[in-house]
Write a structure and sequence with these properties.
422 residues, alpha/beta, TIM Barrel, 8-stranded parallel sheet, disordered N terminus
Length: 422
């Protein structure tokens, strides 16, 4: 880029910042909290979204669509016009977009029956687009990426990330579990927080142009996934080290609390007591309920209200909440049913009706930003129970009734959002 082009790009960036207040009137209220702070804006402008080797602040065409920023109605190419986009120069953030799935895209090991080959990944992404989701949640396994201390391998994750980017699907990356050399077991805390922080820094730095949201561990208050019981002390230390490392690698990234399982309000209070308040940007829960119970909606309300009480007690009520796992089995018949941890399993129709009702319920709650259905695809004898059948599609990628209900719901709510803006 020559000097003149750089100067034009910089002048346009300055104009954008100065005109931002006038643009806010076009941004819907549910997007307002997504408007980046001045420091976040500056960090975003140091990234390179189109991969042309020119940072955003010096790039006259940030999204690489051959339309100059000064003439582009969608500067970052995220599908939202500049006037309604809370962050008009950050592709990774497109405003209120609550629809996601947990998809296990990095599962290609013997212990998960090699769930996603390259062809399976392409098939899944094609179905994501047909479904209409905007976010996919999956693990960035420490063991995969750093199998030996100081030796990093990114090829598998490079492929997945670029495939999703190409198809305009955003990622919530989970940074977990312990590498074999770094702890007693995969679900044990690492011997060294510094080792985990180094892994976090490497991953966040590598994918900062593609991924804004990073979740630190999964269900850290469940002994199954973090084998320690110390009132969240270990997890909070892990969170603090990961937060610092991630922000050093990308000051514009957002840290999502590891999804809290049962008794989430108590676990969140423990994190606050351990000094974790300033080390996450988004609260995250997994409020599983049994849709066959009459009072399941009341159960979700209780979890949500108690969570807000804890947040208010620690003066942290301005943070928003993501539900990164909600779901239930969908089985064909009860003949071979093994049940799940909540008891009897729903059939295909009951799973679909629950999906529709639980989304409508959760999205009415004012602090909820995103809801991820667990899972996208059934597993094959992994959990050894009906948990294997949480999918919207079965192991052969055949859609269940819930897939079509979710697609209808997404289309209806997106259409309503468009009508409301007119």
């Amino acid at each position: 880029m020559n000097y003149t082009s750089k100067r034009v790009a910089c002048l346009f960036f300055c104009f954008l910042l100065l005109s931002l207040p006038s643009l806010l009137s076009a941004i819907c209220p549910q997007d307002r909290h997504l408007i980046p702070s001045p420091s976040e804006k500056a960090a975003v402008m140091q990234l390179d979204f189109d991969g042309d080797g020119v940072i955003n602040s010096e790039d006259s065409d940030i999204d690489g669509d051959d339309i100059a920023n000064s003439k582009d109605k969608d500067i970052d190419g995220d599908g939202r016009d500049n006037e309604s986009d809370p962050s008009p120069y950050d592709w990774r953030e497109k405003g209120f977009s609550p629809f996601g799935v947990l998809a296990f895209l990095s599962w290609n090991h013997s212990w998960n029956n090699y769930k996603y080959s390259s062809s399976d990944l392409e098939k899944a992404v094609k179905m994501f687009k047909n479904l209409g989701i905007d976010y996919v949640r999956f693990d960035f396994y420490w063991e995969d990426i750093e199998p030996h201390k100081g030796e990093f391998s990114f090829s598998k994750y490079d492929y997945i990330v670029k495939l999703l980017r190409k198809n305009n699907i955003r990622i919530l990356g989970i940074l977990d579990y312990s590498a074999s050399w770094a702890a007693k077991s995969w679900n044990a805390p690492p011997f060294s927080y510094e080792d985990f922080a180094n892994f976090v820094k490497k991953v966040v730095g590598r994918y900062k142009n593609y991924i804004k949201y990073w979740e630190i561990w999964n269900e850290p208050n469940s002994y199954t996934y973090l084998a320690v019981r110390d009132s969240m002390k270990t997890y909070t230390q892990l969170l603090k080290s990961a937060y610092r490392a991630a922000k050093e690698a990308d000051a514009s990234c957002k840290i999502v609390l590891g999804g809290l399982a049962r008794e989430a309000p108590y676990a969140l209070a423990d994190i606050y007591r351990q000094g974790g308040k300033g080390y996450f940007d988004i609260v995250n829960i997994h409020p599983f309920v049994n849709p066959l119970r009459f009072r399941w909606q009341k159960e979700i309300e209780v979890i949500y209200n108690n969570l807000l009480k804890v947040m208010r007690r620690y003066h942290d009520e301005n943070k928003h909440i993501w539900v990164t796992e909600i779901g239930c089995p969908g089985i064909k018949s009860y003949k071979d049913s093994q049940g799940w941890w909540e008891g009897r399993s729903p059939n295909f129709s009951q799973q679909a009706v629950f999906l529709k009702k639980v989304y409508l319920k959760l999205l009415k709650l004012p602090h909820i930003d995103k809801v991820f259905w667990a899972f996208f695809r059934d597993c094959k004898e992994h959990f050894k129970s009906d948990v294997d059948y949480f999918g919207l599609v079965d192991w052969q990628f055949r859609p269940k009734k819930a897939f079509f209900y979710y697609r209808w719901l997404i289309r209806e709510l997106k259409s309503k959002a468009r009508r409301d803006k007119q």
